[in-house]
Specification:
Layout: H1 6-23, H2 33-42, E1 53-57, H3 63-68, E2 75-79, H4 83-93, E3 99-100
Parallel strand pairs: 1-2, 2-3
Length: 101
Amino acid sequence: MILGDPVADSLQASSMEGVFDRWAAVYDEQPNPLLALEERYLAPLLPALTGRDVLDAGCGTGRWLYRCIPQRPASLTGIDISVAMLARAREKLGDFAPCAR
């Protein structure tokens, strides 16, 4: 694959979208040691978010955005390549955050 080749980049993105679309239904419920490790090490690194605008690029099912709600940010926005993951994020977040592809 040639870096920066729009056709190859589009095919790779489409392939990844399909993977995450299929995983979306069980992503939050299925045991995942990588997510557990991420929670343990990244959660303490989050800054104070009160009054701030938060963008989660690659938000998946919105689990990190959901964690931000109690801190009362000014806004929460999630973007992701997977339509199915975004649907799960919308279910979880309701009116708290717009989610877009």
